[in-house]
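Problem 3 from the worked examples.
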Amino acid sequence: MGCGASTSNKKITLEKCEQQTDDKIEDEDILALLRDRSLQPVIGVGRTKEALKAALNLLDLKDDQVSGKWPQLAWQDLQESAVSSILKPSTIHQGDTTTCGAISVLEAMVYYRPSTYAQLVLAIYTAGQVRTHDGLPWGDTPDVRPELLAAAPPDSITGRSVADWMAASAMIAELKDQTWLRDMMGHDEYLGGDATGPDGKTVDHARGLMFAWDVRKMMKELLGCSEVERDRAYWMPFPSITDKMIALTASGALDRGETVLICLISNTLWKQAELSPNVEGADGWAVPEHWVRVRSVVDNGYGDMLTVSVFSFGEVQSWAISKAGWQRIYFEALFGKLNV
């Protein structure tokens, strides 16, 4: 039973194919995606053309060069999905699954460390293993369970998010396998299915849920944050947490990747913020239900209004909202230091 520490200190690296050594992309499918105007690459700190090219080179493999452990997933589909995410991270979509915590970590990974993301996707698909940011097997039992390997993405997962569904499902299942309690509850048997079905909530709804310490573990061991600070707000407003978000945005730290913020908010109240900046008329407490990655929190310089941008459900959503309203709808925040 896993405890989060690897039984081996040996770093595992994926073999490069001959065509990858010349630093040229030859795969027709990748070249077609690079010519797709809807997928023009997002460039920024840590997302230089050289960094993106290095990540794409890792995926520059033909069907006959890849032997996958997931019989329901074809390499060409995985490759197209992973390349799409590398070029435009905000297009990653969790569908109707409860993978939001892992998806938020993956979106930060592919944004700041695209090669780490490509290596993780390759390891999960070709070796059936979840591996850390430095290439080590994650936990004592890093192998993905046969039941998950045999699973297919639910209908809510679009083709361009299938690689992220595979990676997120494997990450969650392995995370749950690393604690005896989750193992005993059967949460390690997560299959990445939709959270609800004709009869209401499915078994995968509960199995996929992640707490702050779960996401923190992924941020440190898979994404590679040197440290992660956890700030608890719960149902009480803490201006200092919001002030920290504002300061990190203003200093450029979030853009530089020095700090990655993953925040748990009430998605229902966040959606209401679009119509009512003060989140008025929302009775009761915010229910912790959804992980997102905060892109920026900007003090508009007048009144109490902020402009907040977060990655969630396949897009970057930006709305004007009062400081008091914003503080009401996040439950707790994780601030991770990441050097890119």
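Problem 4, a separate protein:
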Amino acid sequence: MRIDSAGTIWKMSYFRGVPKGEEFHCNGNRWKKQSTRTARLVSPARLAGPVFYFRATTVCESAYKESNNGL
């Protein structure tokens, strides 16, 4: 995990560990996972739209969402 200058906590994981529908960062771009093997390019806006295949072991970063689980 890392914390950026804005205080956001980022977790590192493999593409296979990113939940479907979640946005993540990879290779300097922002993506939205669509299936177990594909993601749609979200940012930069001028390139947004295309869908690309990812390897299950591609390293990705996503914002850490804390869960209390009722504790």
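Solution to problem 4. Residues 40 and 50 are 6 Å apart (CA to CA). DSSP finds no helices and seven strands in the chain.
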